[in-house]
Amino acid sequence: MPQTQQSFVNLKDDPIYVSVEPWPQCFELETGDKLTLVWDAPETGDTLQINFINDRELVVWPEGAIDDIRYFINGEPGEDRSWTFKHNP
Prior knowledge:
Number of helices: 0
Helix content: under 10%
Oligomer: single chain
Largest sheet: 4 strands, antiparallel
Number of strands: 8
Structural class: mainly beta
Shape: globular
Strand order of the largest sheet: 1-4-7-8
Order of helices and strands: EEEEEEEE
Distance between the termini: 36 Å
């Protein structure tokens, strides 16, 4: 199965929140932070669905073999930052 990746960059002046379902994982991204997801893509169809909750929150649903999905924040392993917030969402 081919690997794919998707990145989200916060260009806003305030933090944004990206939830990755169905687990869920949730990441707070400060201004300039980049969250990258890497996983095995499906053979056909969409690799990711995005639902915007509001201008600071979005929910993403990766498709494919997601049991071994990897999370990077600014190029560094970032899974340990899930649910670690500096601000009140």
